[in-house]
Amino acid sequence: MGIAARELNLYVIRPTLLYLGQNNPNAEALLLGIAASQSNLGSALHDRRGHGLYCIREPRHAALWDDYLAHDPDLASLVRGLASQHAFLCSPHLELTVNLRYATAIAWLLIEEQHLVIPPADDLLGMARIWRQAFEPQGRLRDFTRAWHACVSPLNQVA
Fold it and tell me: Which domain of life is it from (predicted)?
């Protein structure tokens, strides 16, 4: 298994969302579920499906910058502030693998750019639909819910 869900949320997801001006526990839960579904919370950070916790594909990453962030210089600057100073210029897609806060910001913006309504944290099927729409169009809803139960649900039982 990868990163503990509680710690990923506490030290990466929540601070990144706050940095982006999003104080939203439902968004936190959604990103945890996406990380669980895409990489088993970091067990596999690079495979054929994409880079990092959220398995973001290079064309999607580039398109987000070209088609979304390019139109909002303030947001682009904020996100660029999360990236490594020199490494980003040499290999921007590698940031998705090695920089958890940057990857989380990009994952959030892939959802935000589509103007998707974030379901409540207890609506697993609603979150699974967002995951499928924003990350895995061919994904099965049950894959999301299984990953949630395996990786994220124990977080809720501890608290």
Answer: Bacteria
Alpha helices in 12-72 (DSSP H): 14-19, 25-39, 58-63
Do residues 153 and 145 touch, judged by C-beta distance below 8 A?
no
SS3 percent helix, strand, coil of the chain, rounded to 5, is 65, 5, 30
Supply the Cα-derived Rg of the chain in whole angstroms: 14
pLDDT by residue for the chain (159 residues), tens only, comes to 579 999 999 999 999 999 999 999 999 999 999 999 999 998 877 677 799 999 999 999 999 999 999 999 999 999 999 998 777 767 788 889 889 999 999 999 999 999 999 999 999 999 999 999 999 999 999 999 999 999 998 665 433
Q: In which domain, by residue range, is 151 found?
A: 5-158
Which candidate, 30, 52, 13, 61, places its Cα nearest to that of 131? 30
